[in-house]
Design goal:
The complex is a heterodimer of chains A (327) and B (209). Chain A is an alpha+beta fold and 327 residues long. Chain A contains 13 helices and 12 strands. Chain A has helices at residues 13-22, 33-41, 77-82, 84-89, 91-98, 103-108, 111-116, 122-125, 139-142, 166-171, 273-279, 286-295, 308-325, and strands at 6-8, 26-29, 48-51, 61-63, 69-72, 175-180, 183-188, 211-217, 224-231, 242-251, 254-263, 270-271. Chain B has helices at 18-33, 40-43, 78-85, 141-148, 158-171, 177-183, 194-208; strands at residues 2-3, 57-63, 66-72, 104-107, 110-113, 126-128. The chains are: A alpha+beta (327), B alpha+beta (209).
Chain lengths: 327, 209
């Protein structure tokens, strides 16, 4: 049985914002797949759930006036994965969404929730009062860190960000739309997640009472090819051990511009500038791909048990670059 | 709890308790009586009230084409309400954390985990459970195929497997082998009857045609 909470499922966003503002410790319920699990396991407490699932404006995926795309925060992961426009124009995002969790979870989980989900570190999810839960120690640093990060821990917290959609949204230059008690604001998808050195107890830059309402994608630039590769221990349910999201603009065979983000790598979707530097202005021939694969782990700080990820990233980056070069 | 086939599909989660009624009134009164000492925050009037912690709410659920009106706590999952309030034990409680698939139900024809779904969230939706796949006393085609292909051993995961398969076949009556594997990847079978389950779904696709 879940712990008790007050609950409301308003039809209006203004109601949801007002209810959250009234709550001492309120949480937003979208699809509920992560939230209900966290409440059941006592990962955090909530005195109030404000369900936004009944707010019609937050649903749907549609083209924007400028030729981009608006994905309502409540669009399910399945809807994102199967949407014809997403598949045609932002293939990496469709691939990322289709690799999330299991079919049932994709049918229920939302894009907004996928961006806001809690980390999967087993100390965080277990009965350990770790830094992220307000405790004084990161147990992963000296403990079993098989599934922890190579980059961006800032020697504070070693989670990997669990989202498969976030690295693709970041690579594709998406914008996250937010409404809160102070009104509306937007944040670039690549700045939406919180580095542990800034605030180890927050996963996103959302302020108290704020709700993600949509993500928008800019019109695809000329020559854009995007893709996502996820490496995991089993073909369903699992989170990325290593992953790479590519959004590259080609001019003929040459990579004119591009953004590369790694998943399973860091506490936030991790921009790999070394890979970008290795490929921009180049044709993706064997030599360039080899350099880019090596560059993908430049600066990596493996822990006692996650050194195997070095090879996984190199392999995944090499294979995915070869695939995207072939068109 | 009562069964009322003509129950309306109220989505407001109308509250029954006296305390909840008074609390809702109190919010409205604060809005009217707001003085300089009260913050605008507490004075904000809302169209949809908050159901206080620990109170029950009346909801209308449509399960297997029958409308039910019942009192639930907001923290009750659909799995809990199906089994404990409606006595429909075909939907199994496995991991209760979205990791096994035993509680799979169809919501508007789409497979979902009932253990991670609050009952409050599915008012006005069409819920189908294993019981809803029966045709009177006769097994439905997917159930029959599971029986014929020996697609279970201990049977605990079977209801979830059958409902997930039904959801697949409603969306795609002629699934490829790869589609079956992918669609069934949210359901675990610890007895390892996967090949038989796969065969049963191919056979069920034929029976449904």
């Amino acid at each position: 049985m879940l712990p008790n909470f007050a609950y409301s499922r308003p039809r209006k966003l203004t109601d949801a914002v007002a209810h959250l503002a009234d709550a001492k410790n309120g949480r937003v319920h979208a699809g509920g797949t992560d939230l209900i699990g966290c409440l059941r396991d006592g990962i955090f407490k909530a005195d109030t759930l404000v369900s936004i699932s009944g707010i019609e404006d937050l649903h749907g995926i549609e083209e924007t006036g400028d030729g981009g795309l608006r994905i309502g925060a409540l669009a399910t992961i399945t809807e994102v994965a199967d949407n014809a426009l997403v598949k045609e124009r932002y293939a990496g995002l469709a691939q990322g969404a289709s690799e999330v969790a299991s079919p049932q979870l994709r049918n229920q989980g939302t894009i907004g929730g996928n961006l806001c989900q809690k980390p999967r570190c087993w100390y965080y999810r277990g009965e350990f009062h770790c830094l992220r839960k307000g405790g004084g120690i990161c147990f992963a640093a000296e403990g079993d860190n098989t599934f922890h990060c190579l980059f961006g821990s800032d020697d504070v917290c070693y989670i990997t960000h669990p989202s498969d959609t976030a690295p693709n949204l970041a690579a594709l230059n998406a914008t996250v739309h937010i409404t809160g008690p102070e009104g509306k604001r937007t944040v670039a998808a690549d700045a939406f997640h919180m580095p542990p050195s800034v605030d180890v107890q927050a996963e996103t830059v959302l302020r108290p009472g704020e709700i993600v309402t949509a993500v928008t994608l800019p019109p695809p630039p000329r020559g854009l090819r995007s893709s996502y590769r996820k490496v995991r221990a089993r073909r369903s349910w699992d989170f990325a051990l290593a992953g790479v999201a590519l959004a590259l603009q080609f001019d003929g065979d040459t990579v004119k511009n591009g953004r590369v983000f790694l998943s399973g790598a860091a506490p936030v979707p991790w921009r790999s500038r070394p890979v970008e530097k290795a490929i921009i202005g180049k044709k993706l021939d064997d030599a360039t791909i080899k350099k880019a694969a090596e560059a993908s782990v430049e600066g990596a700080m493996p822990l006692a048990k996650n050194g195997y990820k070095i090879g996984l990233f190199q392999g995944a980056v090499a294979e995915e670059l070869a695939k995207i070069a072939a068109g | 709890m009562k069964h009322d086939p003509k129950a309306s599909h109220c989505q407001c989660g109308g509250k029954m308790s006296r305390r909840g009624f008074i609390t809702a009134l109190g919010v409205g009164a604060a809005g009217v009586a707001a003085t300089g000492a009260m913050t605008a925050r507490t004075a904000t009037a809302k169209e949809t009230p908050m159901i206080p912690s620990g109170e029950m709410a009346r909801i209308d659920l449509t399960v297997n084409d029958r409308a039910h009106t019942l009192l639930v706590e907001p923290r009750w999952t659909l799995l809990h309400v199906l089994r404990e309030s409606l006595g429909m034990t075909g939907t199994k409680a496995g991991c209760e954390r979205g990791e096994c698939g035993a509680c799979t139900v169809l919501i508007d024809d789409i497979p979902r985990y009932a253990c991670l779904t609050l009952a409050m969230e599915v008012q006005g939706r069409r819920i189908v459970t294993l019981e809803g796949l029966m045709e009177g006393e006769k097994l439905g085609p997917v159930q029959e195929a599971f029986l014929e292909e020996d697609a279970f051993q201990c049977g605990y995961c079977t209801p979830g497997q059958i409902v997930a398969a039904e959801g697949l076949l409603r969306a795609d009556p002629n699934p490829s082998s790869e589609t079956i594997t992918r669609a069934m990847s949210g359901n675990l079978c610890r007895c390892g009857t996967y090949p038989h389950i796969h065969n049963a779904i191919q056979s069920a696709a034929g029976k449904r045609r």
